[in-house]
Amino acid sequence: MPDHPILQIQPLGFPWQTLDPFLFCAYHDDAYPQGNAQMGPATSLAGRDLGQDFSRKDGWSMYHGGTVPGFPSHPHRGFETVTVVRKGLIDHSDSLGATARFGQGDAQWLTAGRGVVHAEMFPLLDETRPNPLELFQIWLNLPARHKMVAPHFTMFWSQAIPRLTAQDDQGRETEVACIAGTLAGAGAPLPPPPDSWAAQAEADVAIWTLRMAPGARWTLPPATGKDTRRMLYFFKGRSAAIAGQTVSAPQAIELRAGVPVELANGETEGEFLLLQGRPIGEPVAQYGPFVMNTQAEIMQAMQDYRRTQFGGWPWADEAPVHGRERPRFARHPDGRHEEIAGD
Asked: Cis link prior to 21 (omega < 30° from 0)?
């Protein structure tokens, strides 16, 4: 069926494979135990390769952390990270002088541009109960003309993210959160960073999360761009009918972007991530945390980082955490401070 809305289906691995303009998506779902006095796991770390622990032992990993799980200071150049935290908290620090604690539905959008160093640590604040953490980190490419722009730090707090709650004819709900892109009925979209591919009028970038009640039906509207590509990640649930075709989770489903697609969830709650955008269509050269257009630019990035440390690391610790009692907050590079009440 050449005109069927589904173009391909593939199983989810780690990280998730993406389509241009996205580079990849890392999904972390860690069942961390109660915390200790240092905000790390209150359990033995024996048997873990600390500094490089992606073991999923007991349902969680330390990643590059030694005491607190997470990712101590590391550089990026040439793309953007979009981090959406669904459960738990991240303590962020960077070479711009920005710090933040965010989570519980918040999103951070960091344009690395010509170079930034940041740390993302996962403090386990609760000493009496488990500390689950669930997040997406999505890498969005920058076009060649913007790869060397100034870095930019952006916070999208949960209460400001546009959301749509739709009911089908049986009253079963689908909830859509729109980190990027326009969705009728969800309210005005949030402005992406100024040099992002998502900020370009023709880019048609969307980053949405969907939660569907058991048996719920909802029609995914068509994208507006002629060349837009669209991937739907069915990452939680049992099964769903996508344009009439039964799909079992976890799977990545590439869809024809220009047509509406009916989603009919199965008997358990289903959750999806949608990534779409018009391809940048340029060569991609990548070496670890650097994404440029040529190998010569990658070599230059490595030399620049060795020489300048992308401005240097202004914090005493390579893996900063922000204290046990501090609520969600952000201190921006210009000194502006936000604190989120109600934690």
From this structure: yes
- Residue 238 token pair: 């049992």
Q: How far apart are CA 87 and CA 95, in angstroms?
A: 26
Q: How far is CA 305 from CA 120, 207, 300, 309, in A?
A: 19, 30, 8, 5
Half-sphere exposure of 166 (CA within 13 A, CB side): 20
How high is the mean pLDDT in each 10-residue block of the chain (343 residues)?
86 95 97 98 97 97 98 98 98 98 98 98 98 98 98 98 98 98 96 97 96 98 94 98 97 97 98 98 97 98 98 96 95 96 64
The CATH class of the 6-32+68-277 domain is: mainly beta
The pair of structure tokens assigned to 54 is 């992606």
CA distance 13 to 91: 26
Q: Cα-flanking dihedrals φ and ψ of residue 309, to 5°? A: 55, 25
- Asked if residue 32 lies in contact with residue 130, where contact means CB atoms within 8 angstroms, the answer is yes
